[in-house]
Amino acid sequence: MADATFDDFMKVDIRVGRVVRAEPFPEARKPAIKLWVDFGAGIGERKSSAQITAHYTPEALVGKQVLGVVNFPPRQIGPFMSEALILGLHDDAGGVVLISPDQDVPKGARMC
Question: b/e per residue, 25-42, with b = 16+ CB within 10 A?
Answer without folding.
Answer: beebeeebbbbbbbbeee
